[in-house]
Amino acid sequence: MTKEALKALLDGMTLEEKAGQLTQCNAGQFIRVDAEITGPEGQPLPADALNRVMGSVLTFENAKQARQLQDMHLAADRNRIPLLLMVDVIHGMKTTYPIPLAMGCSFDDDLLAECAGMARREAAAAGVHVTFNPMVDTARDARWGRILETSSEEPLINGRMGAALVRATQGDDLSDPDNIACCVKHYAAYGAGEAGRDYNAVEISERALRESYLPAYKACVDAGARLVMPSFNALNGIPSVANKWLMNTVLRDEWGFDGVVISDYDAVGELVTHGVAADMKEAACLAMEASCDIDMVKGVYYQHLADLVREGRIPEKALDDAVMRVLELKNDLGLFENPYHGADEEAEKRLNLCPAHREIARRAEEESAVLLKNEGILPLKQNIRNLALIGPFAEEKRLNGFWSRPGAEAYTVTLPEGIRDRMPDLELVIARGCGAELGDTDTDGIAAAAKAARSAEAVVLCLGEPENDSGEGRSRTEVTLPGPQLALAEAVIRANPNTAVVLFNGRPLVLTELEKIAPAILEMWYPGTEAGHALARLLWGDANPCGKLSAGLPRTTGQYPMPYNRTNTGRPKPQPDTGVFPFSSSYLDSPNLPLYSFGYGLSYTSFSYEKLTLDKQSITKNGSLTVTVTVRNTGDRPGKEAVQLYMRDLVASVVRPVQQLIDYKKISLEPGEKKDVVFTVTEKQLRFWDFNCKEISEPGDFELSVGCADHLLLTHRFTLKA
Fold first, then answer.
1. Which site in 6, 43, 65, 353 is 20 to 30 Å from 256, CA atoms measured?
2. Is 9 in contact with 79 (CB distance < 8 Å)?
3. Rounded distance, CA 158 to CA 104, Å?
């Protein structure tokens, strides 16, 4: 449809019809769906609202439902404006790949893009037009359950992976039925909520906001994301959905975003609960003034926008601008010509859980796993005759993580299934041992588990947290292993020291006591559909662990927030990080550093960093320097290594981080092979936000290092000249 035709369509609409285009509700209000909703149903709408006024729906399940919803609407809408159909496709549609936090550990943007392409194909075939993805909140407190939805505590990783997902999901032509639109969320600083509580307030300086939280959202906007979702939280006293500085000044004016802004679930109505709006009518006014285009679920816009325009409180042009943004998105998706877009039941059957998609998911699961410790236990011997598979996750099917689609566990390859496929003649003994629920104290099964361990050649001990213990609304005050799992580990490892611990969890956990006794620890996170096959290949060395932590693991919950790119105080704790140093910035009862630092991860092979060179010792503002690091595989297995480049600004007008990741590359090396990994460093990577919130760089000395946070291996200094 041409721009002129869209304008004519808009001009012919009533105020109520315009308000309807900005109204979204659950599909479950009109058809039967099994998908879980994540908030209150909202204001009841008239029975024929879908036909008359609704602009979009969310949370349907398949192509049949997508076509049903569209047909119901188009049959009665006099304007014949198609619905937008939106779904949370976070880490897979039917075929589930690892949670975003795990994918961050892959340090591989291309791998995430491959996974996103797989999810896009399945989602498009189901009739999805928009996915509420990527989520790129910087999260540095694992008490917050939604840390599993972001890639990292580092905005560079969040931005790069978010942008890669946007490009892989939207493609070059949004009207292509195989492509769907992305909604980047949750703008802004949702991951910085007080005390790690979900939906909680955020008080943060503009300088910190611009330096650590906004860059990832901007990277996704720059990549072409068509929608943005404001966060639930109040940011410096103003809820994001009504925050004019955040939405208008920064997003619209500074960044030039001209796409659709959609509220989170009931966020417009919650302005009343926040206490910044006296009633729903005022809430609608505040959200519209902050250029929020679509009201999700509550029906606040549907009830009040037309009256607000008639009363002169909202200019009709503001309403028209918002409606036009929605119409343009529908037009770019090609919905006026093909309202079903890619919805195709036959394509669903062909694509969902197909071998090619399962292979992508399995590979992602293997490359996002992080080997934390290994005292010669892994990989297991090929000629092993019997194995004990122990723990509350030994036979668990719910290994997909929060935001997996309804019924995902039905398609999960369990650990016993994966192991038996890999080792059909292996005698496998399974014992649960104990539960993993919060508050569980039942230890009756531990003795039997220890007995099973004692009789086996080796043990795989499967620990973690239940799938629904991390995710939206799943905050915790202690991020330790729930239930009596540590007691189980102590008994099993005492019975058989040849034990490898495998972890399934959605957040960084405190592993301090477990690390003291476990000879091997493999962090699998929530891996997804191919969990059992991926684990079996990792256990026997068919796949070599290559994940690096995208968020550090604490020694104790009390260390949070715990950013790896911390700044020094005037009294920093001396290194090494042991002992008590009075009158320094330290704890009496714990080291400062995490148990396992950001960027850390082992392999079944070994790598040496042999040489770091810079092609020049100084650059100017318009110049660049080439950094070359030589990496060698010094072990006897092929492996992959995520080479990380860190920067430190030695003297600046504001305190700068002691280490800051500025680039990374993933390489593959055969045994004995070496490669030169080349990075280009420019003045732009040296910039920061000064006290007056201006993005600048300052002449002076800088250090470049490789390794991982807190364990930098090689360092060179250079100068930025005026």
1. 6
2. yes
3. 8
Beta-carbon contacts of 309 under 8 Å, excluding residues fewer than 6 positions away, are: 15, 315, 316, 319
pLDDT at 578: 87
Task: Compute the distance between CA of residue 558 and CA of residue 573 in angstroms, rounded to an integer.
Answer: 17
Alpha-carbon distance of 318 to 339, in angstroms, equals 27
Overall pTM surpassing 0.85 (yes/no): yes
Any domain includes 326: yes
Whether 264 is catalytic is yes
Complete DSSP assignment for 480-529: BPPTTHHHHHHHHHHH-S-EEEEEE-SS--B-HHHHHH-SEEEE--S--T
* 634 and 532 together in one domain: no
SS3 61: coil
Residue with tokens 């390489």: 667
Q: What distance in Å separates the CA atoms of residue 458 and residue 174, rounded to the nearest whole number?
A: 52
Domain coverage including residue 310: 3-347
Selection from 211, 147, 140, 220 nearest residue 185 by Cα: 220
What share of the chain in percent tops pLDDT 90?
93
Instruction: Indicate whether 293 belongs to any domain.
Output: yes
Q: Residue 145's closest CA among 157, 155, 137?
A: 137
Count of other CB atoms within 10 angstroms of residue 397:
18
pLDDT in tens, 510-558: 999 999 999 999 999 999 999 999 999 999 999 999 999 999 999 999 9
Residue type, 108: D
pLDDT of residue 656: 97
Looking at residue 657, the DSSP 8-state letter turns out to be: B
Q: How far apart are CA 134 and CA 298, in angstroms?
A: 23
Number of DSSP helices (H) and strands (E) in the chain, helices first: 21, 26
The reply to whether 246 and 305 lie within a common domain is: yes
Active-site position among 137, 264, 293, 344: 264
Q: Which of 544, 564, 596 marks a domain boundary?
A: 544
Cα–Cα distances in angstroms (integers) from residue 401 to residues 60, 246, 339, 631, in the given order: 19, 31, 32, 35
Contact 51, 61 (CB under 8 A): no
How many CB atoms sit inside 10 A of residue 411's CB? 19
Domain-located, residue 23 = yes
The C-alpha atoms of residue 100 and residue 91 are separated, in whole angstroms, by 7
Distance CA 474, CA 482 (A): 13
Report the alpha-carbon distance of residue 455 to residue 121 in Å, rounded: 47
Cα distance between residue 109 and residue 156, in whole Å: 11
Q: How far does Cα 32 stand from its chain's mean position?
A: 29
Helices within 278-354 (DSSP H only): 280-289, 300-310, 316-332, 345-351
Assess whether 156 and 210 both reside in one domain.
Answer: yes
State the DSSP code for 592. Answer: S
Structural Rg of the chain based on CA atoms: 26
Residue 335 sits in the same domain as residue 421? no
> Quick one: tokens of 389?
């598979």
Q: How many domains does the chain have?
A: 3
Same domain assignment for residues 147 and 17: yes
Together in a domain, 509 and 631: no
Length of the chain: 722
**Residue 148's domain is classified under what CATH number?**
3.20.20.300
Do the domain assignments include residue 534? yes
Cα(74)–Cα(66) distance, integer angstroms: 12
Q: Please give the backbone phi and psi of residue 63, each rounded to the nearest 5 degrees, phi first.
A: -65, -40
